[in-house]
Every structure is written in C-alpha cells, then in structure tokens.
Amino acid sequence: MTDLHRVSADSYAAVEKIPLVVVLDDVRSEMNVGSILRTADAFVVQRVVMCGITSTPPRPEIHKTALGAEDTVAWEYCPTALEAVERLRSEGYTICAIEQVHGSVSMEAFDVETGKKYAVVLGNEVKGVAQEVVDACDCCIEIPQRGTKHSLNVANTAALVMWHFFSHSLEETE
What we know:
The protein is an alpha/beta fold. The chain is built from seven helices and seven strands, in the order αβαβααβαβββαβα.
C-alpha cells in the first residue's frame, strides 16, 4: 500500500471527496451494491444513498465485492429515491438520472462544472430509474453505446459515471 501511495482505511475519512453523491434506486443485487461502494472508495465519492429495496451493509454478499469499502465510504439509507432526490436538491445538489430517455445528454458532452455539487441516480437492474424519479431530476445522462446491447450492468455504469466526475476533479487540480 505504501509503495502505491494509497491511504489507509483509517486516514481515508480525512481525504477530500469529490462533490458527488451516488443514489441507488431499488438496486436488487447485493454484489452490485458492493461493487459500487468499492468504486466509490476508489474515486473518493462523498457518499452513497441506498433506496427502496437496495440492501445496506453489513451483508456478506456486499462485503464480497466491496472488500471493506462499506466501512470507508459514507453511506445511508433512504426509503425512496424520490425522497433522496428531494433532500439532495434542498442541499444544493444538481440531480442527474443515469438513464436513456428522450432529451438525455451523452456523458461525453456533459460538462461537470467546477464548484457544483452533483448527485447521480442509478436504477434497478431491470427497470432502470423509476419514471417519477427521472421526472424529478434536473437532467438525464446516458453513456454512448454502439453495440447490439443498449444497457450496461448497473455497477459498470456506476464506475463509468464516477470516473467521469472524478476525472474532471483531476483536471481542476492540474
């Protein structure tokens, strides 16, 4: 860990986080939740909000993929994603659903503004982000795809989205 210049789990709490909250709307797979937590740790995301049927730690299947990130990443539970979106908006976040809908913005064209706080909502593995939640968001972002499939696993989607926001924070420090 020292050779890789990684912080310890104990000092991770003091590391500056990017102004991003990840909201999970009824994500049913505990392994996806764990993977998302692990990625949130890697890209120093502020917190993850688990909503609806989304499982919360401690759970063996979450730990299997989180590998301890459930203990380093700030997370909380909210009964519904809509409630989470409304609360985050009141806290000054711009809310973006990650969903393929009419009028969505391609992720490569989405400009992350310096100093702005964002929350991204990721949906259920089958149904996506609930329509009422999409309607409550400020915008929708979609990941461009050219293959025969037009969706990605939610944990893979989360990784790409978190990287997009994280990479913009790297540009700010250069």
